[in-house]
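Below is how a single chain appears once it has passed through the pipeline. First comes the sequence as given, then the structure the pipeline wrote out for it. We keep one example in the README because the format questions we get most often are answered faster by looking than by reading.
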Amino acid sequence: MSNFYSSLLLLLVVAPALAQPMSEAALFNRCYSHLTGKPVPLNHATMTEIKAGKIKALDACNGLLDKADLQASGMLVNSGDSEARAVLNNFYEFHRSWFPTNSVEQIQEYNEEMSRGTMDIYDTTEPALAVTRAVFARGSRYSDVLTLNQGMHAHRQENQTVRNMIGWNVSFPGRRIAGNNAGLDQNLFNFRAYTQGYDGNSDTTQAMFITLPKIEVGELVGIRLKTESVMIPNLSLQPLGGDKRGNDQPGLNFNFNLFATHGGGVLGTPIYLMLNYGHGRGVEANGTTKVPRRWAQTNMNTFLCQDLPSLRESDVRQYVVGNSSTPFRNGASCVMCHATLDPMAYTARNVVVGNSDFAALDRGARTHSKTALHLTSYRPEIASVAGWPSEPVANFHRQTPSGRLFFRSMTGALIDRQVPNIAGLGAAMADTPDYYYCAAKRYFEHLTGIQVALYDRTNPNNAELNLKLSEVAKEDRKFVESLGEELRTSQSVRQLVKRIMASEYYRNVNFRGN
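Resulting structure:
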């Protein structure tokens, strides 16, 4: 009994303090650490002014956030300002956490022996770069993340102090460091010849060589749109069981631009597709068992905060085919997920992963050449099959890449939109309330630690869950939804962050109001 009264007394004493608004100095301490990832330095000039009452903490917080402004070239306006760099890099690291795949080793069938050059030419954090640019680039909009038709290039700078301390180059994101080896530093890649592949005994002149640009490594100091074009001469699709070169395949774009995207902002960038494709090299989509549904699931989870199934049984009954040879079409429980994933994946039916070659060449004048994974596509030379086929479709990978955005919004509305390709999918996703509510949820949790459950409250299956929601949880969701609506209108993530920092949530010690 004594423990009970002790606990009760503790609650009575602590409860008022938990709702206590923070002092101006404490508020600046909080926002500084959230925005930069670092504590406020001793004798910080802004903190001195705040304590003297010359400046409000919120104004200082907003000014600190705006330091990470990116100019038209993509570089930080204040590139020499350590706080500007800290803010940019801290948000970049936060955005990396949105994506489940961040390294080349997570690409299906990545092989260190045959594909190690991949990390030298592809920045696996490019999706996070796109979100970060949408926050800080002048004139950018949050919808850019899913609508731009260009990839992202990171401007980076190695930290000389750290290099001197540890004795070697800092390589982030992962890239092979050549050191003093001029051959490796050349970044030379070899490809199969049009007429004859390299078999280990042939003369190396039968292979084609090309020097590819290397990604930058080190601390992020800017983000720009990719504007360069680098043509890949060929690629190999089948590392085992045959010599399957790209120029042998009907309809394949075997000569392609390394940096060309397939539209839809992040969704269509080569590295994002490879990281999330879910199938190995040379696998061609067939409309049923072989489609990039892992990519579709990542799209739903990352940008719409949708856990599957996101449809109701009543939405999908017509798509159940009991005698289908495709197992997941036989019952509603599976179809509830696949009805969202598969039609979305159809927008990427043309893409295919290949390798520049299967072996690096190290003889003759071309020493230390490399090989890498690449993403290309088949030309859409055949009309798209109607609807959602329940049986494999011949030459599905050569069809027009139409698809469908089909799910229940967290508002309860049924989203059902036919889309022509990946670009159309990105535009359709960016036109949903879920896209903005999801972002608001992520930033709100990042800055306050408060998790908000976003789901379809009108679904009868969620009735019991609704009853368990506290009034506080309902108010939290209402606030996040208001943030999402504001973001949809303003398209400014910076304005969203400032709105959170100005809220009663953020100004109170435990992120809760009275």
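The chain is about 40% helix and 10% strand.

See the next section for the split statistics.
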